[in-house]
């Protein structure tokens, strides 16, 4: 069986992003048979229907999305909702013919933020996923407090509880995605 290809998208663009720290931890602790590529959203412009020639960063993102069997979203919370860089990437992809880059693919969500662990933003993201027909893993949910010794000064994840949760989520995503692939090939 081929490796399951997951694409990671992070809603924070800052260098010391803790959400990117979650994705990096995931990449270093993948279950066997799964790969994780992390997209660079820093040069993706705001979606604008007037842009007829896709910018190179968008082409690159689309290429990675088309090769992905599923997605892992690192979802910061900005003013109780989804950070614009992440929503923008989904918006761009959703305008491709037949929504082929996203439709019918599995996804999982994690997030690092204030005391509520980005739960409000994550539930908004789940709502967006309904419309673009992404199938989001229910459990385990990964809600992480960025300000409670969860990360070291390099924004590496050091909290063992969250580390375990991410490893469990990756296993669950793998099982969920494989079930999805089996069901859709029948
Ligand atoms: C514009 C803005 C709005 C924010 N709003 C919230 C919020 O509603 N809830 C929350 O938990 N954190 C909020 N934060 C704090 C972020 O959770 C915090 O900056 C977090 O570290 C961002 O993730 P990062 O480390 O991956 O950049 C906000 C930050 C910014 C810049």
Describe this structure in words.
This protein is of the alpha/beta class and 186 residues long. The chain has helices spanning 18-28, 56-67, 84-94, 119-131, 160-185, and strands at 4-10, 34-38, 70-74, 77-78, 81-82, 106-113, 135-136, 142-145. The chain has a single domain (4-185), classed as 3-Layer(aba) Sandwich (Rossmann fold), CATH 3.40.50. The chain is 39% helix and 19% strand. The strands form two sheets. Strands 1, 2, 3, 6, 7 and 8 form a six-stranded parallel β-sheet that branches. Helix 4 (119-131) links the parallel strand 6 and strand 7 (135-136). The chain is globular and about 45 Å long. The structure holds flavin mononucleotide. Flavin mononucleotide (FMN) is lined by residues 12, 14, 17-19, 76-80, 112-114, 116, 118, 146.
């Amino acid at each position: 069986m081929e490796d399951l290809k997951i694409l990671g998208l992070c809603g924070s663009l800052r260098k010391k992003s803790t959400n990117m720290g979650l994705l990096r931890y995931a990449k270093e602790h993948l279950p066997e048979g799964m790969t994780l590529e992390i997209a660079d959203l820093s040069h993706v412009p705001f979606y604008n229907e007037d842009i007829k020639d896709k910018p190179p960063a968008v082409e690159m993102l689309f290429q990675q999305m088309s090769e992905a069997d599923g997605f892992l979203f690192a979802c910061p919370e900005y003013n109780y909702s989804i950070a614009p860089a992440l929503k923008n990437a989904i918006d761009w992809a959703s305008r491709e013919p037949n929504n082929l880059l996203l439709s019918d693919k599995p996804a999982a969500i994690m997030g690092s933020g204030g005391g509520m662990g980005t739960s409000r933003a994550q539930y908004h993201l789940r709502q967006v996923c309904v419309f673009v027909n992404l199938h989001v893993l229910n459990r385990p949910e990964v809600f992480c407090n960025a300000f409670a010794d969860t990360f070291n000064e390099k924004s590496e994840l050091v909290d063992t509880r969250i580390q375990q949760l991410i490893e469990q989520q990756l296993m669950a995503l793998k099982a969920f995605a494989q079930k999805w692939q089996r069901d859709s090939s029948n």
